[in-house]
Amino acid sequence: MLFLADLKLKYVVIKKTYRLGTFLSRNNLIKHEEMMRIFFLVLITFALTACSKPYDKYIGYWKLEDSSYSKILEIRKEAKDTYLVNEDILNAANLSGQNKKELVLEQKDKQLGVNNGLTVIPFNLSDDGNSLRIRENKYIKITENEAKTAIKNRQECNQLESTFREQRLAFRVFVNESEKKQRDELLKKYSTLQNQIADCKFHIPKAR
Known about the structure:
Elements: H1 2-51, E1 60-64, E2 72-78, E3 82-86, E4 103-104, E5 106-108, E6 111-115, E7 120-122, E8 124-125, E9 131-134, E10 137-142, H2 144-168, H3 177-195
Antiparallel strand pairs: 1-2, 1-10, 2-3, 3-4, 5-6, 6-7, 8-9, 9-10
């Protein structure tokens, strides 16, 4: 009887040990799978970082800082290794009235720059990638939504200015009292509308 009891006890101990070993093996397997998953994620991230160009940090929208004139430039990548800049996305035409063209940027010493025909003007990117200095001008990086909002505001402002100028032509330089009242009402109306659009700046004479 003692022999059978001892045998039974050994069987229970072996069974519990087996279950514990199985549990530990499964637990180690889960931990191993988690570690492998993390390892591959880190490996993929490292590979993507290694493959990205140092110039890719320039890509995006940049707004001119501390200026009475609102200006946003865009840098984008075309094909594999070509970087283009639109010097002012808020204006479709240049000072001569011609449609603007994007400029191809030069690549040198991990830095982009624009060739003006005489020399390459470097685009100095800050260490944190949030600001860009071109000569004496400093640009701050903004989001795509902010850039789209600025474009929409500029279009609305241009339309408002065009409508204002058309309606203002109805008044002569020298007006009588009745016409003066109508003209002043027009000036006040468009001054209010102008203030409702961010960065909308065109000349509206003050009502007298």
